Amino acid sequence: MGQSAYIRLVDASTTQTVQLQDIKDKFHRYIDMTTKTGNQLDWGYAEAAFPYTLVEKPEGKDHWFYLKGSNPLYKYIVVGVGTDQANQAEGGEQAEESQFIQVVLPDGATHGDKSKANEFCKYLAKEFKAQLDLFNGRRMYYYPRKP
């Protein structure tokens, strides 16, 4: 069984719903930014920053896609969207549905995949101002929190 990280959309997030196309758009923006950085540095930074190709399977339509490594140091990262019931502190209240982005490292993923997956998770959490539950169980907050 692979490892998973979750990017959970919270009340303070930039959006309360996310579609798979939104995530693809964020990845395309990431590739565009790294390409421009590489052009400024006169170096192929985009290939080093995003050594994957985005692959969609018919069975995963609108639910998940995967990033296939274009370098022997990288293999696969799976990215999907889903919903779950948010826990309510007070008993008797209706549980509210919340959306999340799940990033999975399948069996056989390399250390490079894990490093890139952490980087992509942090990027997506920052873009959506979301809560990030990392592969190691630690939690990072990318949204404004009240003291």
UniProtKB/TrEMBL annotation:
* Protein name per Swiss-Prot or TrEMBL: DUF1885 family protein
Enumerate the Pfam families for this protein: DUF1885
Could you tell me which SUPFAM superfamilies the record lists for this protein? Rbstp2229 protein
Signal peptide span per the entry? none
Q: Which InterPro entries match?
A: DUF1885, Rbstp2229-like_sf
Q: Which parts form a coiled-coil structure per UniProt?
A: none
